[in-house]
Specification:
With 291 residues, this protein is α/β, with parallel strands linked by helices. The chain has 2 domains: 30-113, Leucine Dehydrogenase, chain A, domain 1 (Rossmann fold); 140-263, NAD(P)-binding Rossmann-like Domain (Rossmann fold). The chain is built from 10 helices and 11 strands. The protein has helices at residues 9-28, 44-59, 75-87, 106-109, 124-131, 140-151, 171-180, 196-199, 245-248, 262-287; strands spanning 4-5, 34-39, 63-68, 93-96, 160-164, 184-188, 204-207, 225-228, 232-233, 239-240, 254-255. The strands form 3 sheets. The protein has a 6-stranded parallel β-sheet with strand order 1-11-8-7-5-6, with helices on one face. Strands 3-2-4 form a 3-stranded parallel β-sheet, with helices on both faces. The radius of gyration is 19 Å and the shape is globular. The termini are far apart. The structure holds NADP nicotinamide-adenine-dinucleotide phosphate (NAP). NADP nicotinamide-adenine-dinucleotide phosphate binds next to helix 10.
Length: 291
C-alpha cells in the first residue's frame, strides 16, 4: 500500500489567508485584531518560535504585541500582566508562552486569561466549555488535527480513533473534539500497556506523547490514518515526531510528516482564533455585553 503524506503546509497557507481576509474585514469595521504573547524566558528556541508567530501575525494583518517580562519574572508579575491584558479592550487574544521561570506554576496563571481571549485554550474554563459543547477556543494543536482530517476528507464519524496522550493541551481537548464529531474515541497513556491492543483496531491513530519512535508499523492496521503530533529534537538538532516513519510507510494509508504536518497548521490557527475572538468581542461591544 502506498502511504499518502498529509502535508500541513498548504493547509496552513489557506488558514493564514482566511485569517488575513478576516483581519481586513475587521479593519473596515474599525477593529485591528491584536494578539498579546506573554514571554518570560531567555530560551533561544522559544524566542525564535515567538518571533515566528509575530512575523506570521504581521503578514496576516494582525498586531502582535510581545510582552517580554524577562527570565526572572515572578508569578505575581505574570498574573498581574495577564489580568491587565484580559481587561484591555484593544487586546483580543492572549497566549502565555512556556517555559516559565523555575518555580512559576503555569496552571495557576492560565486561569487569569479571560476565556474570550484564550485563543490557545489554556484556561481550564475553556476545556470545561469544550467538554459540555459550549463555545470556546480549543488549544490550537488539538484543532490543527481536526482541521487536517477535514482538509483531507478523512471522516471520523462512527470510526475508531485512538489518541495516544492525555495532556490538557493536546490529548484531552482533541478527544473532546473527536467525540463531538461522533468518533468512537479511545485515549491511551503511559499506563495503558501494550498500545497495539488499541491501535490495531483503529481507523485513525493520533500520537501526542513526545516519545521518539513510540508508534511503529507493527502497531497499526493496513490503511490506517496516522497523525503525528509529537515533536522531539534529536541530538543532531533534527526534529522528528513520535512515529517511526520508515516502518509505518507502506502500511498506513496516510501519515502527517514531522516537520511540516500538525505543527505548521498550529500557528496559523492561533491567528485565525485571534480574528474570531476580535469579531466576537466587537459583536459583544455592539450588544453591550463586553466584560
Ligand atoms: P505531555 O504533557 O508530556 O503529555 C504526554 C502524554 O503522552 C501524557 O499523557 C503521557 O501519559 C503520554 N505518554 C508518554 N509516554 C507514553 C507511552 N510510552 N505510551 C503511551 N502514552 C505515553 O506532552 P504534550 O504537551 O501533550 O505534547 C505531546 C507531544 O506533542 C510533544 O512531543 C510535544 O512537543 C508535541 N506538541 C506539538 C505541538 C505542535 O504544534 N506540533 C504542540 C504541542 C505539543 P501520562 O499522562 O500517563 O503521563
Amino acid at each position: 500500500m502506498s502511504t499518502t503524506l498529509l502535508s500541513g503546509r498548504s493547509l496552513a497557507k489557506l488558514i493564514q489567508q482566511k485569517a488575513h481576509d478576516e483581519a481586513r474585514n475587521l479593519e473596515t469595521d474599525g477593529v485591528r485584531p491584536t494578539l498579546a504573547v506573554v514571554v518570560a524566558t531567555d530560551d533561544g528556541s522559544t524566542l525564535w518560535y515567538v518571533r515566528s508567530i509575530e512575523r506570521a501575525a504581521e503578514s496576516a494583518g494582525i498586531n502582535c504585541r510581545i510582552v517580554d517580562l524577562g527570565h526572572d519574572a515572578t508569578g505575581q508579575v505574570l498574573a498581574s500582566v495577564l489580568k491587565d491584558l484580559s481587561a484591555e479592550p484593544s487586546v483580543n487574544g492572549i497566549i502565555l508562552q512556556t517555559p516559565l521561570p523555575p518555580g512559576v506554576d503555569a496552571d495557576a496563571l492560565v486561569g487569569h486569561i479571560a476565556p474570550e481571549k484564550d485563543i490557545d485554550g489554556a484556561n481550564p474554563l475553556s476545556l470545561g466549555r469544550l467538554a459540555v459543547g459550549q463555545p470556546s477556543f480549543a488549544p490550537a494543536t488539538a484543532r490543527a488535527v481536526t482541521e487536517i482530517l477535514d482538509h483531507f476528507d478523512i471522516p471520523v464519524a462512527g470510526r475508531n480513533v485512538v489518541v495516544i496522550g492525555r495532556s490538557a493541551v493536546v490529548g484531552k481537548p482533541l478527544s473532546l473534539l473527536l467525540l463531538e464529531r461522533d468518533a468512537t474515541v479511545t485515549v491511551c497513556h503511559s499506563r495503558s500497556g501494550a498500545l497495539e491492543k488499541y491501535t490495531k483496531a483503529a481507523d485513525v491513530v493520533v500520537v501526542a506523547a513526545g516519545r521518539t519512535g513510540l508508534l511503529n508499523g507493527g502497531h497499526i492496521s493496513s490503511g490506517a490514518v496516522v497523525i503525528d503530533v509529537g515533536t522531539n529534537v534529536l541530538s543532531d538538532g533534527s526534529l522528528v515526531g513520535d512515529v517511526d516513519e520508515a516502518s509505518v510507510r507502506g502500511i498506513a494509508g496516510a501519515l502527517t510528516p514531522v516537520p511540516g504536518g500538525v505543527g505548521s497548521v498550529t500557528t496559523s490557527l492561533l491567528l485565525l482564533h485571534t480574528t474570531e475572538a476580535a469579531r466576537e468581542q466587537s459583536h459583544a461591544l455592539v450588544r453591550g455585553t463586553a466584560v
